[in-house]
Design a protein that fits this description.
This protein has two domains: about 35-125, Immunoglobulin-like (Sandwich); about 130-240, Immunoglobulin-like. It contains one helix and 17 strands. It has one helix at about 1-25, and strands at about 35-40, 60-70, 80, 90-95, 95-105, 105-110, 110-115, 120, 125-130, 130-140, 145-150, 155-165, 190-195, 200-205, 215-225, 235, 240.
Length: about 240
Amino acid sequence: MQKIFLINIIFFGVILQFLSCTSDIDNFTPPNGTIHGALLDKITKDTVYTTNNTQGYSFPDGVLNVFQQNYSASAAGPQGTSFTQNGTFKNNSIFEGQYKAIPIGAFYADTALINVSGDTKVDFHVTPFLKININVDTKTANSIKVNFSANTNTDKHTVNEMAVWLGTTEGVNRFSWRGSSFNPVDYDSYRQNHWDLSANSSFTKTFQNLSPNTTYYIRAGAKASGDNPQGYWNYSKILKIKL
């Protein structure tokens, strides 16, 4: 009987110790800071467009890596934050403190030291590899014609590949356009690709057989050869067109 009593005491002691540890874990202070801002062209101050997470790619065309400073070596790895399609970013799950910030993508950027305290805004001035432009040429009740171009922005790059895409949602990029996932038969109807380029380039594309009274989103992009081992793409703004 005494043996059973002692076993019960030991058992409940272990349970209490476990609950105490669990309580300590739950009492850790959650992240209390936010960083947000934008990628801006160093020369023109224009927005530098990119892509958001899409089609299973965590950071398809760039990422903001931040490294907390004066912290333990075991936590020295980067915390990645995605850029949105309009070149902005936001991370509201970060601890206050000092961070080394490194924007990575189809651009050159300087490393920055930022002090995160509460809601912290920081913009990064970068030099894009390429400058992408797109404009509507003409439109009808069921078609849209656009012209688009890519021009080198540094002497280390040339235009290697270029494309334009159309979609019915705002998330349009090289991974996602109308028919990209579920309708391979229309693989070329809603995009136009050009490969093996070697200089500044401009093209036109007419998207036909579209539906009247429908809103479409169109953008262009290009990949630079040269100093671009990850194969990142530069992008134009997104055109929103109602037929």
